[in-house]
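Retro notes (design track)

What went well: tokenization of the new backbones is finally stable.
What didn't: we kept losing track of which sequence belonged to which structure.
Fix going forward: every design gets posted as structure first, then sequence, in one message. First example under the new rule, 192 residues:
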């Protein structure tokens, strides 16, 4: 006898199919070149199902980016579990650079998302995920201070530029060494 799935299970499965399909298409083709008819066809759902879960293509894209940001944050948290202070900051940064090598992630997070979602939405997503862990690490190492948020923004931009360079073929080890030197200097200047 075949087990019946609940409505909640069907909704969750439909939403997941839409997110996975949209992620693959957005990563391959970009936001502008991906149409919702293609998403629903490849996901095997109806247009009505898409619009039941997401108001429009932009909302679907935002949900994809939120899922990517959650995955990045989970990788960072896994790499820094049980670590504190400077070691957590170092290992978290390396985990970020590693997870950004996931196929399609660089394009989604650092090329498409800024253009489609804009800085305010990205700042909110970042504050809820990986940006939060970076700020917490900096507060442990450098103390709060008035410049904690600005420092976290600048370090985040440094990691993003490194990820873009590595994605374009630069040697990851050279960026890790340069970032380590920068963090050594930062923590030494802050008395850590």
């Amino acid at each position: 006898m075949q087990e019946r799935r609940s409505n909640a299970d069907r909704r969750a499965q439909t939403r997941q199919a839409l997110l996975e399909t949209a992620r693959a298409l957005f990563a391959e083709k970009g936001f502008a070149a991906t149409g919702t008819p293609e998403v629903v066809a490849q996901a095997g759902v109806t247009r009505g199902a898409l619009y039941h879960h997401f108001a429009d293509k932009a909302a679907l894209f935002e949900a994809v980016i939120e899922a990517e940001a959650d995955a990045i944050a989970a990788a960072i948290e896994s790499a820094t579990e049980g670590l504190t202070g400077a070691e957590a900051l170092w290992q978290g940064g390396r985990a970020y650079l590693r997870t950004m090598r996931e196929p399609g992630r660089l394009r989604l997070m650092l090329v498409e998302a800024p253009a489609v979602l804009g800085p305010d939405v990205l700042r909110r997503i970042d504050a809820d995920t990986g940006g939060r862990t970076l700020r917490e690490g900096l507060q442990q190492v450098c103390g709060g201070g008035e410049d904690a948020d600005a420092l976290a923004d600048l370090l985040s931009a440094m990691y993003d530029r490194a990820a873009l360079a590595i994605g374009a073929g630069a040697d990851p080890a050279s960026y890790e060494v340069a970032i380590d030197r920068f963090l050594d200097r930062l923590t030494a200047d802050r008395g850590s």
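Added context from the reviewer: The chain has two domains: 1-54, 57-189.
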